[in-house]
Amino acid sequence: MARRKAGNVLSKDGEEARSQILHAAQKVILRFGLAKTTMEDIATEAGVSRPTVYRYFQDRTELTSVLIDWRAREVLEASRELLQREGSFEDNFIAGLIHTVALAREDPIVAMVLAPANQRGESWSETLELAAELTADLWEPFLKEARTRGEMRSDLNSSEVYTWLALVQFALFNSMESMEPSDPAHARMLKTFVLPALVAPTDGVTVRRGRPLSKNLKRQ
């Protein structure tokens, strides 16, 4: 039976107590891995009983989901400032994607969740759903402003854009396994294959149902 750590007393404040448990969970998960960590392990690290942990989190799934959400949002907060700087839509978009994914790789919890080995199985759909939600949280103000300025296509479904961008970030995350974030190949890939799908048409070209259409054909 695991011995409880001495001296770790949960705060009487509910939110602070949850935060203490999350910090304990983070330590244990980094030690044993996400799949092998139990509620008993987390309780031991927090210095409380397992029933006490269940008073704050319904089950292990909820606890780990909240932990992942917390760590991921920390990554996003560090990226917001970059998206608010002066610069073109194209430059800030590419720099923002690369910077966000690079930060995700540096966070041990986020990196563990996004590892290629975890990008499949039953939990994959939940991971993608959370990734799309977080992507929307970070990118919506930036993309909305780009649409207002006429720099981004206005015919795209926002929900689909965020899910697609989440998948792009997964691909970028995997490519950084073998290439440094500073490798210019990342920016070239995004500029060649990703940007054209978002940038508003110019020089007399409009878009209908996702296809470029010249002015002459548009009148027919």
TrEMBL record:
PROSITE patterns: HTH_TETR_2. Residues 38-57 bind DNA. One of its GO terms (biological process) is negative regulation of DNA-templated transcription. The keyword Transcription regulation applies. Residues 15-75 form the HTH tetR-type domain. One of its GO terms (molecular function) is transcription cis-regulatory region binding. The keyword tRNA processing does not apply. It holds the Pfam family TetR_N. Keywords: DNA-binding, Transcription, Transcription regulation. It comes from the Bacteria. This is TetR/AcrR family transcriptional regulator.
